[in-house]
Amino acid sequence: MPIVSGANGQKIASSLANIMDMEHVIMEDRRFPDGEGYVRLPNDAIESVRSEKVILVSNTFPDSEILKTILLLNSIKDVRKGDLVNLKGEEPQNLEDVGPGIILAIPYYGYSRQDKRFSKGEVVSAEVIGKLLTNYCDGMVILDLHEQSVLEKLNFPIEFVSSMPEIADKLSRDVMPDFILSPDKGAIKRASEVARIIGCEFSYLEKTRIDAHTIEHTPKNLDVSGKIVAIVDDMISTGGTICRASDALRRQGALEVHAACTHGLFTGGAITKMANHVDGVYSTDSLSNPRAVVESANALSRGIKKLI
Ligand code: R5P
To answer: 10 Å Cβ neighbour count for 81?
Structure first.
């Protein structure tokens, strides 16, 4: 089964191909001088893409990669449909349609946080992206989606997978935490899973987001004095959530505070900002960043196996 990628999914697709002992097909993926994208499946991959189910690894972040993902999926779809006619007419070919079998594996699903209509007139962006993608593939595997219920209602085959087992493994090797903290209620399921795997204490904070850069935590007594604590979240963007949670932990006597997440967006100097608040930051490689120390391919491989 070929694991296909454009530029953005290349590293993860290569790991996935290793883990699953499959062929890695790298698609031609470049930009024209005006910024428009161009993709093409290489000739020598056409046979394998038609003869077996195929997995495309692609992020829907940043915005340009949403369109790129759709182009990549369409290229694969045309080849599987047997639509290989080219306009120059050099090798006109209409082959047999080999049917469904395109799986999209998404390490980081952009727009996942707009999963509700928080105010009248808003669009539920996470659902819009999901609906769009269902037109071009036959199933999806999504890593640590912020809130999976938003896509569950699409009635489409989706495997939701999590990197929490790998994050727990990394933390227990490098940090040996005594205590895992979820920085808000939304991360309780993921962070408590890490605590359960490691076998350490767990608690959570209640967070109110004032705006994109400002959050507040409701004060809470945490039994962290003299303890090594790891804060676990699905994603870190500005780092504000982690910095505020860390401050609360330090005030209550935590000895060390570390932060771990699946998706390290690290926007606006987040890594520098967090360096003043935490002792270490760990993320998966779902997005390329300087703290990507956990492979996301393991979790994706679990979802792919389940889906196929
Ligand atoms: C939101 O609920 C997410 O789980 C994260 O807590 C949030 O996106 C982190 O954002 P930031 O790093 O900007 O505080």
So the answer is: 15
Structural tokens at position 49? 């893409």
Which CATH number is 211's domain given? 3.40.50.2020
Residue 290 within a domain: no
pLDDT bucket at 113, cuts 50 / 70 / 90 = very high
Mean pLDDT across 79-87: 86
For ligand 1, residues with CB inside 6 Å are 113, 183-184, 186-187, 215, 233-241
The atom number, within ligand 1, closest to the CA of 239 reads 12
Q: Which of 207, 220, 227, 273 is catalytic?
A: 207
In a domain, 46, yes or no: yes
Q: Whose CA is nearest to atom 2 of ligand 1?
A: 186
Is 292 domain-assigned? no
Please say whether the beta carbons of 284 and 294 come within 8 A: yes
Using DSSP's 3-state secondary structure scheme, residue 17 falls into helix
Sheet holding 54-57, edge to edge: 24-26, 3-5, 54-57, 102-106, 139-143, 158-161
| Number of domains composing the chain | 2
Q: Active site includes 116? A: no
Query: Which of the listed residues 145, 241, 289 should we mutate to test ligand 1's pocket, taking the one with most ligand atoms within 8 A of CB?
Result: 241
Domain that holds residue 153: 2-162+297-307
Could you tell me if residue 291 is inside a domain?
no
Q: Which residues pair with 233 in a beta bridge?
A: 261
Whether 143 has a pLDDT exceeding 70, the answer reads: yes
| 125 shares its domain with 49 | yes
